[in-house]
Amino acid sequence: MLADRSLLRLSGEDVRGFLQGLVTADMAGPFPAWAGLLTPQGKALFDFVVWTDGDDVLLDCEASVAEALRRRLSIYRLRRAITIEQTDGAVHWSREPGQGVPDPRLAELGYRWLGEPGEAATGWHAHRLSLGVPEGEAELGSDKTLWLEANARELNGVSFTKGCYVGQENTARMHHRSKVNRRLVVAPLGEPGERTRATYPDLGLMVELRRVEALGDAVVPDWLATALAHADA
């Protein structure tokens, strides 16, 4: 299991409709889906994987921000008969097939499923970073990174057809102008600067927000190289 993940359960009156007007992914499916909850300006506050359990929705999120995410969603709930609470269960991951479903962001990330707590998985963070995929508050920041700068378009984290959600206007404008000037990237560990978001000395890596014309020694996996080539065309 991924010990740094937690689950929030949303149950009650039309929870998918409730989330549809808030988060970046389409709550009509398919699931699981990677999604963000943004500021009105389109900057990331939280990211999570959305699962369904009957009429309920489960948010697979960072354990360290689960309570903050619960409080933020509760603000939008208003008078709706919706319950939002942390729930039992664990998020599991394997690099190899055999159980679970492909990660909704990138199939190469491996397989993910929900279940009872068990033995901690090893190698997840190194594998994710080797593929240049950012996640979580430390890397995305809170109210610091525009959702498309976090590579959400390339990693299936946003729907441009679902209608309005918080931060939709600026996100859609960037998309239609094909204008993403900066990208969150993984790079070999160096001297941290003002654009450095997270450092991992044990892995010799860091995550930075860099201008697309100055990516330098950043890891540029195939999925990102394709996006950059398309933007230049």
From TrEMBL:
<protein>
    <recommendedName>
        <fullName>Folate-binding protein</fullName>
    </recommendedName>
</protein>
<dbReference type="InterPro" id="IPR045179">
    <property type="entry name" value="YgfZ/GcvT"/>
</dbReference>
<dbReference type="InterPro" id="IPR027266">
    <property type="entry name" value="TrmE/GcvT-like"/>
</dbReference>
<keyword id="KW-0809">Transit peptide</keyword>
<dbReference type="InterPro" id="IPR017703">
    <property type="entry name" value="YgfZ/GCV_T_CS"/>
</dbReference>
